[in-house]
Amino acid sequence: MQPFVRKWALTALATVLVPVVLAQPTSPARAAPTAASQALTKPVTYDFSKTTDLSDFEKQWGADNIKVKDGLLQISMDQNITAPTIVYSKEIKAGKIDIMMKAAGGPGVATAFMMYETKGSTRDAEGKAYPYDEIDIEIVGKAPKGVQSMFFSKGSPSPSQLFSKDTTLSVNTHEKFIHYGIELTNNYVKWYINEREVHTYKKSQGHFPQDAKFFRIGVWAALNHASWAGQIDFSKQPFIAQVQSIAITPYPSGRPTGKPTVATNTNGQTTANGGSQGSTITTTTVPLHTKLWNAFKGLVSTQVNKLSGPIKNMLPVQFTGL
């Protein structure tokens, strides 16, 4: 192959890929602005089979798509409202949050149970991301039996522990109500599924997300993350996450002071299938850099496959073999 032809082919591929790279936000050296909020000091439980009151929550990015109906908090995502989110109005600087939830189903759909440093947007007026702390439990429609637990410290994964954890259940998260929990103290973060601890991160490991103090639940369309969540099909909308109950136990001292309040379903059960023994749980550690590389490979592969045959044939095997 002539050198200039090979160079032209690589330039053509770079032209396709570079805008994606440049679109990634950078974090300015300032925190996200959030109005002062009252801290929660006493345990509270919301059983949506008994109440429709959402006055303690803020509806964001699609208030009409968030409502209590048929004894359930329903968060509905569609093509017009692609990221409806409900945010608890009070700060939880330390504590445990338990929810009974059935995730929204369908490839390309992500259901998220999170703690954020800010109530509102994590981007400024120019679209740049603020550095913020975040603790997540996420379920994507591409993997209905999988649950991902992760955290970010000031906008970046911890360099000392570059991984999230994938937990595999024996039940479908889109068909069953599952008990999820996040516990934040001054010294550790723990993630729970059906009352089993599936992931722990200690402050002593560095880059600790101590400021993730606002609890939220949302459903969003992973439009630019098909390799991670799958390709969404809006002909199957709406995509609805359903929450039976929410229980919040604050730790004013920054550490547990007693047994946390437990979220229950309408039958008084604390977990799917009547208990933590009702479903098999398998947890695996997946390096975050591996996830990012796999996502990048998927992006490159998609773009390469769009090229015409002659151009594609001029690319190095490192690209065509992804």
Automatic annotation (TrEMBL):
Region Disordered, residue ranges: 251-280
Protein's name in the database: GH16 domain-containing protein
A Pfam family the protein falls into: Glyco_hydro_16
UniProtKB keywords: Glycosidase, Hydrolase, Signal
Compositionally skewed regions (Low complexity) per UniProt: 263-280
GO molecular function: hydrolase activity, hydrolyzing O-glycosyl compounds
Species annotation: Dimargaris verticillata
Extent of the signal sequence: 1-23
Source organism, top-level taxon: Eukaryota
Ranges of residues in domain GH16: 35-251
Coiled coil ranges: none
Native organism taxonomy: Eukaryota, Fungi, Fungi incertae sedis, Zoopagomycota, Kickxellomycotina
